[in-house]
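F.,

This is the one I mentioned.
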């Protein structure tokens, strides 16, 4: 899960923060990233850190945006995003990424909320059933 970074503590340099608005066409647009100084947040916020190659999904705001960290560095998720770290002995990251992109209606089925403030119910999201071919099939280019 992302962390609730405070806008008034954004910096022009430091450690990068990924916001939902920085996701375009399932990729990170690093041109408009904001940064933070770790000394502004003395408590451990490593839970919000994603690594190169990690997949993330937005759960509030623009719901169901899916992305893949294809930058050359780790990045911190702002509140409204969560990471998906699959067991790669069972599920190939690239297969999961493409499954998420191609199954937006299933993601949308996990939305809840009252009135104009829907959000993705992460417990429902965790229960989504993913059609899982063998790992060798997941690794083949023609299945993606």
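My design for it:
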């Amino acid at each position: 899960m992302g962390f609730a970074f405070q806008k008034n503590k954004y910096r022009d340099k430091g450690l990068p923060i990924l916001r939902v608005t920085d996701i375009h066409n399932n990729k990170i647009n690093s041109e408009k990233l904001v940064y933070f100084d770790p000394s502004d947040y003395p408590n451990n916020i490593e839970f919000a850190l994603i690594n190169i190659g990690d997949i993330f999904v937005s759960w509030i705001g623009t719901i169901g945006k899916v992305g893949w960290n294809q930058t050359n560095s780790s990045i911190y998720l702002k509140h409204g995003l969560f990471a998906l770290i699959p067991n790669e002995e069972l599920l190939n990251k690239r297969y999961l990424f493409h499954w998420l992109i191609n199954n937006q209606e299933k993601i949308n089925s996990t939305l809840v909320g009252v009135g104009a403030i829907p959000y993705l119910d992460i417990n429902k999201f965790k229960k989504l059933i993913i059609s899982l071919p063998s790992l060798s099939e997941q690794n083949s280019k023609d299945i993606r």
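The CA atoms of residues 22 and 38 lie 21 Å apart.

Talk soon.
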